[in-house]
Amino acid sequence: MLSPEQREYILNRAYVPEHVLNLMVSISKGEPSLVDGYIYFSRDNWIIFVGYPLDHDFATESLESALSGAIKKYQPGYIWLIAPEIPHSFTRFCRGRETDHYYKLELSGLVIKKDLMRLVKRALRELSVKRGREISKEHTKLISEFLKREKLNPRIRELFLSMEEYIKQSETSVILNAIDKKGELTAFYVVELSAREFATYVVGCYSRKNYVPHASDLLAFEMINIARENGKSYINLGLGVNKGIRRFKEKWGGVPFLRYEFCEYRPGGAHPKILKMMKSLEERL
After folding, report:
1. Which of residues 139 and 1 earns the better pLDDT score?
2. Where in the chain is the domain with CATH 3.40.630.30?
3. How many alpha carbons lie under 13 Å from residue 241 in its C-beta half-sphere?
């Protein structure tokens, strides 16, 4: 269990969404731990290991050492590892593998382009933005519509489905709601503000049944406002995911700033070669 001092230390040095304890604990239901500058979350027979060090530059050797120690301690059946680079000793055993980049929007000196402000003003003719702290039935319906329409990987789907519980548990999260003239919800963003340096874009979705053009642009503008109000240096916009999402983030000034790799593997007897590899790795380290 982390001490209050450790929690503060993590949030002061956080730079990826997976460092944000409010978010990760609520979604994963895991217990956070800190070892050699790395955070990981554990429960039952699994570990989520965040391979982005808080107190030193990334190196695959240090990641291998810390991860090997966590595996030896918990002997998990499942491990989900994210890092700028998956160590070669683990890549051949990955059952699931993804690559992407985190996107970052710097707020210092940011001047919003005139064409974007025109889109925001156009949206404001039909919409207003209200800040909230509750996932209502309207949000749930919109999420359901969005998930039926979009092809998302299982982890992203679970992220959306966990929003109600997450919002209840995180006092530093806020929902930005785009409301039409009938008082109906047409789009929303969820933003997390607990990290010292940045605001985290958690999820966002819009309705096609109750569609209003440029609702997402209006919410992006409001997200910038709330991040500035809370003294953040930048917004972590999350992963690129696909071409359409990347294009939207780049339109608003987001740039890829950190490589992301994901690997899922099962060292707990599912594959004999993994056990042999782990023993060899422990001896080498």
Report:
1. 139
2. 104-258
3. 19
